[in-house]
Amino acid sequence: xxxxxxxxxxxxxxxxxxxxxxxxxxxxxxxxxxxxxxxxxxxxxxxxxxxxxxxxxxxxxxxxxxxxxxxxxxxxxxxxxxxxxxxxxxxxxxxxxxxxxxxxxxxxxxx
Length: 111
Known about the structure:
Blueprint: H1 48-57, E1 62-63, H2 64-71, H3 75-87, E2 92-97, E3 100-105
Antiparallel strand pairs: 1-3, 2-3
């Protein structure tokens, strides 16, 4: 009877670095053991909240329907965004004209 012994390879955990990664930089300048790290861009990509702020800063503000159309949100999400802007310190005024609510950012006069 011949005995063959096989050595099992030790299992690696998903986040454990591989044994051959020495952490040195390769020719591309990135760490071979970690994914590429991107530098933050100099210009900020506008998000939906920026569009909402732009609409609210217009003369006359914006209606809920306009906010929903621009952002693609449901009406309750657009209203929640208005609440979030209020919590961040923006003064939002609501006016009703012909049964339609209009929302606008009020510029506060500094004293």
